[in-house]
Model the fold of this input.
Amino acid sequence: MTKTEENMATAKIVYASMTGNTQEIAEIVQEALEDRGVPTELTEMSQAVAADFADADICVVAAYTYSDGGPGLLPEEGEDFYDDLRALDLSGKVFGTTGSGDRFYDDFATAVDMFADAFTAAGATKGAEGVKVDLAAEAEDIDNLEIFADQLIAAAAKLA
Ligand SMILES: Cc1cc2nc3c(=O)[nH]c(=O)nc-3n(C[C@H](O)[C@H](O)[C@H](O)COP(=O)(O)O)c2cc1C
Done:
């Protein structure tokens, strides 16, 4: 496992965002983790490969949900990433998922659940329930994202 000198966990957040809502959510999580002493790398999904999670103790995906009329609900740039993620061995790592959606849709923020399933398939341990945000994050969402960060850190400490 990757550890800093103080035996503190490190985190990696990969996000997909079309209009900025999920990017902001990812940045809120990054800031919350860093405020709590966890060095956190933030990468846009099309610039990342799932195997990058091998270098982190806490793995986070933040993704919007996008239904194109077909069965797909993942961001287009997330489809390969999703398949690659499922095929990894991330045992010993903690994961959390979050993202923006729109309550107007029946499949509200379903990508948050789908990425959680992919992490589970990869053998990672869920450190916090997924946080689904309706459009842009508001004060209550920010509180929930800070709790999410706390729970991920606590879960990583337990696994270490
Ligand atoms: C064509 C289209 C389809 C969408 N489908 C869904 C959907 O199935 N479920 C959902 O929760 N949100 C859906 N959304 C809403 C987006 O997920 C929402 O606007 C989100 O805030 C976008 O996040 P971003 O700003 O990070 O890109 C859809 C948006 C568009 C434009």
Observations:
- The chain is about 35% helix and 20% strand.
- The chain has a mean pLDDT of 94.
- The domain at 11-159 is CATH 3.40.50.360 (Rossmann fold).
